[in-house]
Design goal:
4 strands; 48% strand
C-alpha cells in the first residue's frame, strides 16, 4: 500500500499499473497533475504477510488540489500474483 501511495505521489503510473491485479487493471491511468498527495494514514490491515495469499488495508490518503485540502478513504484488497502483492479492488463501504 505504501509503495502505491508513493507512486501516486510522484506520478509513477507505470508502477501503479504493474502493481494492479491483471483481472482488474485498467488499460490506462491518468493522474491529475494538480493533485498533490501529502500524507498517508493506515487505519487497519489484515493478512498480508509471507504466510498469507491475500490481505486488506484500510487507509486515508490526504491531498491538496487547486488549493483545496481533502482526503480519500478506502478499504483495499490485495492478493499475491506472480510472487508480488498487487492491488485488486476496493471493498464495499460497510457504513
Amino acid at each position: 500500500m505504501r509503495s502505491r501511495y508513493s507512486a501516486f505521489a510522484v506520478g509513477d503510473t507505470a508502477y501503479l499499473l504493474r502493481s494492479w491485479h491483471s483481472m482488474t487493471r485498467p488499460a490506462a491511468l491518468e493522474l491529475d497533475p494538480a493533485q498533490r498527495w501529502t500524507r498517508l494514514e493506515i487505519l487497519a490491515a489484515t493478512g498480508g504477510t509471507a504466510f498469507h495469499t491475500e490481505g486488506t488495508v484500510a487507509f486515508r490518503a490526504h491531498y491538496t488540489v487547486h488549493g483545496h485540502t481533502d482526503s480519500q478513504e478506502e478499504h483495499s484488497r490485495f492478493v499475491h500474483e506472480d510472487g508480488q502483492w498487487v492491488y485488486v479492488d476496493a471493498l464495499p463501504d460497510m457504513s
